[in-house]
Structure formats: structure tokens, C-alpha cells
């Protein structure tokens, strides 16, 4: 048995992760997998690369697979009433009690009527009947409703009820119908899908047609629904000719999941991340035939229509597919937000996610409750806390305020940009490095202390320090983060003029960072600090994965740097407005020292500073670190070897002492 199987994971999934080299679950996996398997709504917060994807994919895969297996074999998925027609304990008002058999309900709420629906419905054609007996004094109501109807039966256009005062109700219109009923009376409810009628009976007497089913509801599924107290709610036979008891309805007319109604929806901030998650799920499920997994892009619509169980997608794409009914959410039981801090921070994504959540049924047709899983590299995000479901989530994976990887050395190189001795170097580099051009029309005089000169010097010296860091650490691969695409292009041209072509660097912005999946990349260099502290964690989380050591170097300017901040309609295309945004321009002053303070406060540590030679001090325990290699902690092992030996001796003596006590005849009375 693998370590993952001890968490309750299927042997097939345990074998798959074992073949991936996952010997032991990470902390977030050990905590998150059992919680999700147990039906919990969770908020998983841990650093990038800690295994959050596996923490939610493995249990979700297992539950979806078990559900499909039980459907194919006719088993009841472990739920007592999943196949029987009973009142749905998950589709009821809070103050309505339902007995264990699911056939008796009662409410003592004095302020508001309490309702419930059955766990199954019928559609298409046929004539169906059920009945209920009033079990208590007081008013009550029963009838039929569609899936989208209010539990307060008869108060909207989707519900049709008959109440104890002798009134039929729909859309809050209460009209005389039949006679009143009370304790001991048995009320029958008839649904004629062939003729499009709804009627009722009292104690075996047919009261006639009560409603015509509206044309827009002809293709809807109808569920038995009640308000307040009834017993013997659902029966298999009907006393009226031509009608059958709902629990004896033909299987072809009973609501069941559509093929394009996935059981799990995973939302990612970018298409690249959606593809990565999809690929990871395919690896996990390689020993299972089901479930079917898909990314909903246009060329895959046919596959989705044929049947898909798990979908990974971006918010906008999903909303389009849901609104056009290419994807149905009626059977969704898992709603997963991955990289939630990035999702909710993006423009319009928060409102899109809230809208999608409002469209999801909180109870699936088989009576299963919707599970919410929110994953993030950071928990302290105000936008994440604005999610409607935030308060219902159980947070896990956070033992402190920060979530910075422990196997990444984080250092900063302060850059002054104003020293007189740097004047010649700035002039020299200026001929080789093209900046963003924001100071093209400014009076730049190397050696002066004007803000514009210091800003231009910052841009040039950062390029020089970047090259120096690459050479000092013999970097052959890594990730370089810049603020804008223009900066990325300038850095790329600069490095191409010096590099031999053997080094492999990915130069990108924060937007692209969320779509990067790297393994064992040893270096990341922040040419400019991000303006959101959460993005710093995502940046440095790109390295140091899979127990490999990484080095994150941040080039921090001691002076504000003037940068582009385009608010113009062209978003920077042929824009030369260097005025500040406060002056209706497209530029701001970027204060990295303030950003650094925010990051250090968020992490709860002070990031070590290195000199301009880019040499990282040697650790006193581990000696020289080889970045990109497995973290060995050899020095710590030597230091702790004595303590470990003492613990082993103590454990041995304790076990021997216990055995002697257990076998000593004098202790028989104690035992």
C-alpha cells in the first residue's frame, strides 16, 4: 500500500502517483485529500509547487470515478436513498425535518413555510401520480415543481401547488380549487405530460384539472414538492386509470445526467494553466478508464457533446458555453477555483465567477451536495475573501502568514543608479541596451541627481546587473521576470547580444507566469519587483520545486523609476504621452523600495541583501549550494546525528521497559 492509499486514495491512483515518483504526500495533500473525500468545502493555501493540483485532482477523480462505476453497476453510491424516490434531504429548507426513510417530513417554523423536493423527477411523456397524507394540524401544500422553482411551492412560475385552504397556487396567484383539507386527509398529485395538465385528488376523489403546463415548461423535468407536514409521501401505484406511481416511472422518463453535464468544473486563470491541469489529470487517471476529461475549446465541442465528466477551462469560456447550453451544469458536484487570487484579481473575473456559481445547482438530481474547492498560493487576498462562498470554506495548508517556498534562497541586490563612479558604465551600457524610451525627450545628464537621470540609470544598470548575475552563477537556464512586454523584448535583445546561445532563459511578465509549468529550473531573476506582493510568491514559486534548490534574485532600485502605465485606448500602441497619469498621461513613478517593504512584511522576513558582485554568501551548515540539485541538508544531518542516536537509544530502552513490565508477574493485578 502506498502512502497515498493510506489517505483513502484508490490503488489505481496510488500506483499512478508512485510511478510519478511521489513517495509521500505533501502537507497540503495529506490535509486536503481526506477533507475532500469526506465531502468538505475547502480553501487550500500553500506555496506554488507544493502539490495543490494533486491535492484536489486525486480525490475529485476518485469520487467521480466511483459515481460512474456505481451508475454502471446499479449500486447506490453508498447513499441509502440515491435510487429510491424519497424527499431530498439536500434540497429542502433548513427548518424542515425529514425522517431517515425519506417519506415523512415536518416543520415547526412559525415564521415561514418550509419546503422540499423529491430527489428524482420525470420528463418527456407519460402520466404520473404520487400522494401524501397530512400528519399534523396546520396549513400545508403539495404539488409539482421544476428544478429551478422556489422551495416555497406555488410562489413562482415554475411551481404548481394545492393548499389546505382549498386554493391552487402558481406565480403567487391563489385561486379556489376543490375543497380544504386537514389532518388525516390524503392528497394525490397527478401530472399528465401527454396532455400538459396538472390535477389533484382528495381521499381518492379526482378534483379535476388545476393547471395547464406552460409551453415554455413542456420539456422541463417535474419533481414532487411539498410544504410542511406529510407522510407516506411517494407510492409505486396509482388509483387512477392511466397514471403510474412516480417511483414506477419508466427509466427513460426519469431525470438523469446529460452527456454534456460534467460532474466537475475546474476554473483556471489562463488557457495554459487549464491545459496543464488537464494533462496532470490524464496522468493521474492513466490506470482508470473513466472519467472523461476535456478542455472546452471550440474544436472539442463534439467531444463534450459525446460525454465529459471533468472540464478545465477559463471563466469567460465557461460562461459562454453555459449560456449557449453547450455545457450543462445540472449535474455539477465539484466547483474548483485554481489560482483563485489570480482569478478574482483579473478584470471582470470575480463577477463572472459569482455568476457561474449562482447558476450551479446546490443539489444535484441524485441528491449530492455541491462541493467548493478554492486553491491559492496566498490566503491574505481581499478579493478572495469577497467570494460569496468564502465563509463556508475550511482553510487548510497555512501555518503562518506567508507561503514562501523553503527551498528557494531569496536575495536582493540594491541598485543606486546615482554614484559618480557609475557614470562611465552607464554611458557604455547605454549604447548596447535600449530602454523603454520613456526618457527619450528628457535632459539625461549622467552624474546628475535629477529624478529622470536616476530613473534612466536604473533601467540601464539593471540590465548590467542582470548580465553580471548570469555570469557569476554560471546560469544555463532560468526565468527572468520583467514588468511589461516591452521590457521583456528589450532584455531579450540585450542578452542575445552577449549570450553564447547555449543558455536558455524564459523572459516573461506576471501574466505569463501563471501559465508556466517548470521542473527543476534553478534560477529566477526579478528585473522589476511586482506591484502585487502575491505575485512575488508566484514568481519565486516557479523554481525550487520537487525538493530542488532554487535562487531568486531581485534587482531593486533605491530610487523611483518612471515607467509606462498606459490608460490610453491604444494601450501603448504608438503612444508617446510621458506625462503622469495624474496629468492625463501614461506614466507613473514606480517605487520598488516601498514594494519591497510590503513583500517583506507579507513574508514576515527580511530578504537578504547581496553586493553588486552578485555573490551569494555560503550557508554555514550546507556549504556551497548547487542550485537545481536536490536539497541535501548534509550539514544539518551531521549536526543532528548525535541527537538522533540518543532518541533511538531512548526508544529502545522504553520498549524494553514496557516489555519487562508486561511480562512481570507482579504487574498482573495492575493489568
From TrEMBL:
Alphabetized SMART domains for the sequence: DEXDc (SM00487), HELICc (SM00490), SPRY (SM00449)
Entry's Gene Ontology molecular function annotations: ATP binding; exonuclease activity; RNA binding; RNA helicase activity
Motif (Q motif): 2-30
Boundaries of every Helicase ATP-binding domain copy: 264-397
Residues covered by the DEAD-box RNA helicase Q domain: 2-30
Domain Helicase C-terminal: 427-622
Keywords: ATP-binding, Exonuclease, Helicase, Hydrolase, Nuclease, Nucleotide-binding, RNA-binding
Pfam families linked: DEAD (PF00270), Helicase_C (PF00271), SPRY (PF00622)
B30.2/SPRY domain residues: 65-244
Gene3D superfamilies the UniProt entry points to: 2.60.120.920, P-loop containing nucleotide triphosphate hydrolases (3.40.50.300)
Catalysed reaction equations from the record: ATP + H2O = ADP + phosphate + H(+)
Enzyme kind, highest EC tier: hydrolase
Key word RNA-binding present: yes
Enzyme Commission code(s) on record: 3.6.4.13
Domain notes: The helicase domain is involved in the stimulation of RELA transcriptional activity.
PANTHER family: RNA HELICASE
Free-text function comment from the UniProt entry: RNA helicase.
Family in the record: Belongs to the DEAD box helicase family. DDX1 subfamily.
Protein name per its UniProtKB record: ATP-dependent RNA helicase
Amino acid at each position: 500500500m502506498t502512502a497515498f492509499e493510506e489517505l483513502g486514495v484508490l490503488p489505481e491512483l496510488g500506483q499512478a502517483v508512485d510511478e510519478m515518483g511521489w513517495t509521500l504526500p505533501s502537507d497540503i495533500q495529506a490535509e486536503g485529500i481526506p477533507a475532500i473525500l469526506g465531502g468538505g468545502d475547502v480553501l487550500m493555501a500553500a506555496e506554488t509547487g507544493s502539490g495543490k493540483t494533486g491535492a484536489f485532482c486525486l480525490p475529485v477523480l476518485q469520487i467521480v470515478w466511483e459515481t460512474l462505476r456505481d451508475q454502471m453497476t446499479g449500486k447506490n453510491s453508498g447513499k441509502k436513498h440515491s435510487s429510491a424516490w424519497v424527499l431530498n434531504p439536500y434540497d429542502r429548507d433548513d427548518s424542515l425535518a425529514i425522517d431517515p426513510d425519506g417519506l415523512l417530513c415536518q416543520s415547526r417554523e412559525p415564521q415561514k413555510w418550509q419546503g422540499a423536493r423529491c430527489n428524482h423527477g420525470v420528463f418527456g411523456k407519460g402520466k404520473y401520480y404520487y400522494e401524501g397524507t397530512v400528519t399534523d394540524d396546520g396549513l400545508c401544500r403539495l404539488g409539482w415543481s421544476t428544478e429551478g422553482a422556489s422551495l416555497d411551492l406555488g410562489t413562482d412560475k415554475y411551481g404548481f401547488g394545492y393548499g389546505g385552504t382549498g386554493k391552487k397556487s402558481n406565480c403567487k396567484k391563489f385561486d379556489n380549487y376543490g375543497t380544504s383539507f386537514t389532518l388525516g386527509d390524503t392528497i394525490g398529485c397527478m401530472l399528465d405530460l401527454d396532455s400538459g395538465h396538472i390535477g389533484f385528488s382528495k381521499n381518492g376523489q379526482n378534483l379535476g384539472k388545476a393547471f395547464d403546463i406552460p409551453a415554455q415548461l413542456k420539456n422541463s423535468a417535474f419533481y414532487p414538492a411539498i410544504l410542511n407536514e406529510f407522510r407516506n409521501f411517494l407510492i409505486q401505484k396509482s388509483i387512477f386509470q392511466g397514471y403510474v406511481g412516480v417511483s414506477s416511472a419508466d427509466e427513460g422518463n426519469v431525470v438523469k445526467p446529460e452527456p454534456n453535464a460534467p460532474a466537475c468544473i475546474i476554473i483556471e486563470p489562463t488557457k495554459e494553466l487549464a491545459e496543464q491541469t488537464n494533462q496532470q489529470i490524464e496522468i493521474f487517471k492513466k490506470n482508470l478508464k473513466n472519467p472523461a476529461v476535456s478542455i472546452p475549446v471550440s474544436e472539442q465541442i463534439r467531444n463534450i457533446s459525446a460525454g465529459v465528466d471533468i472540464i478545465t477551462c477559463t471563466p469567460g469560456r465557461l460562461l459562454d458555453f453555459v449560456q449557449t447550453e453547450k455545457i450543462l451544469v445540472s449535474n455539477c458536484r465539484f466547483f474548483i477555483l485554481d489560482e483563485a487570487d489570480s482569478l478574482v484579481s483579473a478584470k471582470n473575473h470575480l463577477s463572472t465567477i459569482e455568476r457561474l456559481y449562482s447558476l450551479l445547482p446546490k443539489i444535484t438530481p441524485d441528491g449530492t451536495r455541491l462541493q467548493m474547492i478554492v486553491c491559492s498560493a496566498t490566503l491574505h487576498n481581499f478579493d478572495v475573501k469577497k467570494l460569496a462562498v468564502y465563509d463556508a470554506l475550511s482553510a487548510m495548508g497555512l501555518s503562518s502568514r506567508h507561503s514562501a517556498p523553503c527551498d528557494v534562497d531569496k536575495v536582493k541586490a540594491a541598485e543606486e543608479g546615482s554614484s559618480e563612479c557609475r557614470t562611465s558604465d552607464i554611458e557604455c551600457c547605454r549604447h548596447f541596451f535600449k530602454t523603454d524610451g520613456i526618457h527619450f525627450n528628457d535632459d539625461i545628464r549622467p552624474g546628475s541627481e535629477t529624478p529622470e537621470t536616476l530613473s534612466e540609470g536604473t533601467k540601464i544598470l539593471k540590465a548590467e546587473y542582470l548580465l553580471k548575475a548570469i555570469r557569476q552563477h554560471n546560469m544555463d537556464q532560468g526565468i527572468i521576470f520583467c514588468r511589461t512586454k516591452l521590457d521583456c523584448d528589450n532584455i531579450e535583445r540585450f542578452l542575445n547580444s552577449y549570450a553564447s546561445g547555449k543558455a536558455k532563459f524564459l523572459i516573461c511578465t506576471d501574466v505569463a507566469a501563471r501559465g508556466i509549468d517548470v521542473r527543476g529550473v534553478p534560477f529566477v531573476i526579478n528585473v522589476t519587483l511586482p506591484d502585487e506582493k502575491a505575485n512575488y510568491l508566484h514568481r519565486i514559486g516557479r523554481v525550487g520545486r520537487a525538493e530542488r534548490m532554487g535562487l531568486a534574485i531581485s534587482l531593486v532600485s533605491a530610487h523611483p523609476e518612471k515607467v509606462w502605465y498606459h490608460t490610453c485606448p491604444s494601450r501603448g500602441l504608438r503612444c508617446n504621452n510621458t506625462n503622469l497619469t495624474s496629468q492625463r498621461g501614461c506614466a507613473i513613478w514606480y517605487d520598488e523600495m516601498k514594494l519591497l517593504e510590503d513583500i517583506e512584511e507579507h513574508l514576515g522576513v527580511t530578504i537578504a541583501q547581496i553586493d553588486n558582485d552578485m555573490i551569494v554568501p555560503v550557508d554555514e551548515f550546507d556549504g556551497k549550494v548547487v542550485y537545481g540539485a536536490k536539497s541535501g541538508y548534509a550539514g544539518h544531518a551531521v549536526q543532528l546525528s548525535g541527537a538522533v542516536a540518543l532518541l533511538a537509544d531512548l526508544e529502545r530502552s522504553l520498549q524494553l521497559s514496557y516489555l519487562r513490565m508486561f511480562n512481570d508477574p507482579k504487574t498482573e493485578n495492575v493489568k
